[in-house]
């Protein structure tokens, strides 16, 4: 097994995730099989209980693991399926060591950070690296490891020590360290400054790790004299200094690496030059070029609770982008804070109320993503009502599906006090209820998580056709509440169709309005399995409906006929001078990666 470690210096948010994913992709394009590991130094066992405002979205894996959003990044780039153990946290490591200590595995020894914690980290890496993630039976050739945080952080010190030992343990030719750093340009001086990177590399070396390759983030390509200076002071060959400059599209990042022969530098360190081929990027390149050429817009109103941070809905944004590219449309997302649609806002802040409703009414489609808590729920219900009554394409995900059901109960069934027991435990008409197997005392890992099977109930429904007329589909879940099965017949008698159910037939998975152009709610999270070139079926249906292409799509056999390639996507990375991107409800722009061709966040 060969290992590539990606670390970061100077500042956080440089795009280590995209760099690590792009490195994995370029190695995969060289004919090697690749797996990935993300190390997060925080004490949480996993990302499940962390606030999206602070940490971005919680990405859910097939095995139910609630992990850092970078693992979604790896899955999209490399088209692989990772496990919960591919995300290492300080909490997991300490928990495993303390469990061993309680069992007496250390035979009365004093348990210390070195060697017990550091050994546990190395053993975890070696164990997980050999787990196949690409559908094959044998281990991958290369494991790309991303160390979260910035070099010098106190919480990452045990991992730095462990990785220093690990590099010595696996030996030269099996370990390559790539350090991602910043080369800023001061406006006053106007030249690229190398000192931050010099200090970062010096700090890294003082901790026992020596970089083989420098990946330098900058607004423009590094000047030759800057590379020579970095080489001289950082003791890295000029050929091993890669310039990761701002680009028009994050899918260009692997191409930037290829053009600078980054793969040759990596293969040389890993002694793989005689094994790997030249990288092949045919469909990846064509999709990247297509994305930059799109100009005809499609506008989607995202009505949510965490609209202040686009990373809170990162996978949703990616799924929308995958689908818009497949439909040859330039995506614009209008962020609509759900609470701003409510009547209370009309009294307290009429300008926000007016702006939010204008954004909603100007959209080609409406999307209500998942979420927790009662803030903004009434605004989401109003958005679902607007989409239903005005025949605007609507997609509700998880809570968004439950919102659609509540709205239908109030407006069509006449149950004005209908609600979810999550928001009103004493509601006389509980349309959505707490699942019997859930826990009300423990938050972490107690939801219905991971891949579950949904069986289609109606053969000629839009959802069935979108999924290629299959009898079932496996999708990832993350929820505690479900549609009340005792009210299903009442809903269906009033025209609402539950077209997908679980294996018992009692848990509702897909709901749609047959007489609406496109009104679908899903209990699962389809965004987690969307890939560029292989967009999620219900997201593709939403964009197709917004563009007037849905009938054509359904006649062709749904999403299965819309596969462009086996390519993938990524996470936040660059921003260029055009400054365009995700349109926010307040008229500002969000996302680290922006350009003039729509949403690239």
Structure description:
With 601 residues, this protein is an alpha/beta fold. Helices cover 35% and strands 20% of the residues. It has 20 helices and 25 strands. It has a 9-stranded mixed sheet, with helices on both faces. A 7-stranded parallel sheet has the order 5-2-6-1-7-8-9, with helices on both faces. Strand 24 (594-595) and strand 25 form a beta hairpin. The two termini are 33 Å apart.
Task: Label this structure with key terms.
globular, 601 residues, nucleotide-binding, glutamine amidotransferase, seven-stranded parallel beta sheet, alpha/beta
Question: Which SSEs are present, and which pair or pack?
Answer:
Blueprint: E1 2-8, H1 16-29, E2 34-40, H2 52-55, E3 59-60, E4 66-67, H3 69-78, E5 87-89, H4 90-103, H5 113-129, E6 142-147, H6 157-170, E7 175-182, H7 195-206, E8 213-218, H8 224-234, E9 241-245, H9 253-259, H10 262-269, H11 282-293, E10 297-304, H12 314-326, E11 330-337, H13 343-348, H14 350-361, E12 365-368, H15 377-389, E13 394-397, H16 399-411, E14 418-420, E15 429-434, E16 448-456, H17 462-466, E17 472-479, E18 481-483, H18 488-493, E19 497-501, E20 508-512, E21 519-522, H19 537-547, H20 550-556, E22 582-583, E23 589-590, E24 594-595, E25 598-599
Parallel strand pairs: 1-6, 1-7, 2-5, 2-6, 7-8, 8-9, 10-11, 10-12, 12-13, 13-21, 14-15
Antiparallel strand pairs: 3-4, 15-18, 16-17, 16-19, 19-20, 20-21, 22-23, 24-25
Helix content: 25-40%
Largest sheet: 9 strands, mixed
Radius of gyration: 25 Å
Please report the distance between the alpha carbons of the first and last residues: 33 Å
* Strand adjacency order, main sheet: 11-10-12-13-21-20-19-16-17
- Tally of contiguous helical segments: 20
Low-confidence stretches: 564-601
Catalytic activity: UTP + L-glutamine + ATP + H2O = CTP + L-glutamate + ADP + phosphate + 2 H(+)
Organism: Solanum pinnatisectum
Keywords: ATP-binding, Glutamine amidotransferase, Ligase, Nucleotide-binding, Pyrimidine biosynthesis
Protein name: CTP synthase
């Amino acid at each position: 097994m060969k290992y590539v470690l990606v670390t970061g210096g100077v500042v956080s948010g440089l795009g280590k995730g995209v760099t690590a994913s792009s490195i994995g992709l370029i190695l995969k394009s060289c004919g090697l099989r690749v797996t990935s590991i993300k190390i997060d130094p925080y004490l949480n066992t996993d990302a499940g209980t962390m606030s999206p405002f602070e940490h971005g979205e919680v990405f859910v894996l097939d095995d139910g693991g609630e992990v850092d959003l970078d693992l979604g990044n790896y899955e999209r780039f490399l088209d692989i399926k990772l496990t919960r153990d591919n995300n290492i946290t300080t909490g997991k490591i300490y928990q495993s060591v303390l469990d061993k200590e309680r069992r007496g595995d250390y035979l009365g020894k004093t348990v210390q950070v070195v060697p017990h914690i550091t050994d546990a980290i190395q053993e975890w890496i070696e164990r997980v690296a050999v787990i196949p993630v690409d559908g094959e039976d044998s281990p991958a050739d290369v494991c790309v490891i991303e160390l979260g945080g910035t070099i010098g952080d106190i919480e990452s010190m045990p991992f730095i020590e462990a990785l220093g030992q690990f590099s010595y343990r696996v030996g030269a030719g099996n370990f390559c360290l790539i350090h991602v750093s910043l080369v800023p340009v001061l406006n006053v001086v106007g030249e690229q400054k190398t000192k931050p990177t010099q200090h970062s590399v010096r700090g890294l070396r003082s901790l026992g790790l020596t970089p083989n390759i420098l990946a330098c983030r900058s607004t423009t390509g590094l000047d030759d004299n800057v590379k020579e200076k970095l080489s001289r002071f950082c003791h890295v060959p000029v050929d091993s200094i890669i310039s990761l400059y701002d680009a028009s599209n994050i899918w260009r990042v692997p191409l930037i690496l290829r053009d600078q022969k980054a793969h040759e530098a990596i293969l040389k360190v890993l002694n793989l030059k005689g094994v790997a081929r030249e990288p092949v990027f045919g469909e990846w390149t064509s999709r990247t070029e297509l994305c930059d050429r799109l100009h005809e817009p499609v506008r989607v109103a995202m009505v949510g609770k965490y609209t202040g941070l686009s990373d809170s809905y990162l996978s949703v944004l990616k799924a929308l982008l995958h689908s818009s590219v497949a439909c040859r449309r330039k995506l614009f997302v209008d962020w609509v804070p759900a609470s701003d649609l409510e009547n209370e806002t009309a009294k307290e802040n009429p300008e926000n109320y007016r702006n939010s409703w204008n954004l909603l009414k100007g959209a080609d489609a409406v999307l209500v993503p998942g979420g927790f808590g009662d803030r903004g729920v009434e605004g989401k219900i109003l958005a679902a009502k607007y989409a239903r009554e005005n025949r605007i394409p609507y997609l509700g995900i998880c809570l968004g599906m439950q919102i659609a059901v509540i709205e239908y109960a109030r407006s069509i069934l006449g149950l004005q006090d209908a609600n979810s027991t999550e928001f009103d435990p004493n509601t006389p008409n509980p349309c959505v209820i707490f699942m019997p197997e859930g826990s009300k005392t423990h938050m972490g890992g107690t939801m219905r998580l991971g891949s579950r099977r949904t069986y289609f109930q109606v053969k000629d429904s839009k959802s069935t056709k979108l999924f290629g007329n299959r009898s079932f589909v496996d999708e990832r879940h993350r929820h505690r509440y479900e549609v009340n099965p005792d009210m299903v017949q009442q809903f269906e008698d009033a025209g609402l169709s539950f077209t997908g159910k679980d294996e018992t037939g009692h848990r509702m998975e897909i709901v749609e309005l047959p007489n609406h152009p496109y009104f679908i709610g899903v209990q699962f999270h389809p965004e987690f399995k969307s890939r560029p070139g292989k967009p999620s079926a219900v997201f593709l249906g939403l964009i197709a409906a917004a563009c007037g292409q849905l009938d054509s799509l359904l006649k062709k056999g749904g999403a299965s006929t819309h596969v462009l390639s086996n390519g993938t996507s990524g996470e936040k990375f660059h921003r260029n001078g055009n400054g365009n991107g995700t349109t926010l409800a307040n008229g500002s722009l969000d996302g680290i990666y922006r350009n003039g061709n729509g949403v690239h966040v």
